[in-house]
Amino acid sequence: MKQIKVLGTGCRNCETTAKLIQETAAAKGLSIELEKVTDMAAILGYGVMSTPGVVIDGQVVHAGGVPDRKKVEGWLAG
């Protein structure tokens, strides 16, 4: 099971990103553990300067803007 963190202060793009990841995983029948990280110090600890950021299994895979569905599918496939 992939551990996914969406880094952001709770803005609209952050919520959209989290929802997109959940929907994509559900459509593929995958179980994921999704956590929203809103603490600015924790976000900066990952080196993410623009949100939303996405961390999968401890690795930053995205920062800034809502990722497209194909990108999310690629993360979940890997």
Tally of DSSP helical segments: 3
Number of domains: 1
CATH architecture: 3-Layer(aba) Sandwich
Low-confidence stretches: none
Q: Output the radius of gyration.
A: 11 Å
Structure class: alpha+beta
Order of helices and strands: EHEHEEH
CATH superfamily: Glutaredoxin
Fill in the keyword field for this structure.
alpha+beta; Glutaredoxin; single chain; 78 residues; 4 strands; four-stranded mixed beta sheet
What would your notes on this structure say?
With about 80 residues, the protein is an alpha+beta fold. The chain has one domain: 3-Layer(aba) Sandwich (Glutaredoxin), CATH 3.40.30.10. Helix content is about 40%, strand content about 25%. The chain has three helices and four strands. The protein has helices spanning about 10-25, 40-45, 70-75, and strands spanning about 1-5, 30-35, 55, 60-65. Strands 2-1-3-4 form a four-stranded mixed beta sheet. A hairpin with a 2-residue loop joins strand 3 (about 55) and strand 4. The radius of gyration is 11 Å and the shape is globular. It starts with a strand and ends with a helix.
Summarize the structure.
This protein is an alpha+beta fold. The chain is built from three helices and four strands, in the order βαβαββα. The model has no long low-confidence stretch (mean pLDDT 96).
Which helices and strands, and how do they pair?
Layout (H helix, E strand, L loop, with lengths): L1 E6 L4 H16 L4 E6 L2 H6 L7 E4 L2 E5 L5 H9 L1
Parallel strand pairs: 1-2
Antiparallel strand pairs: 1-3, 3-4
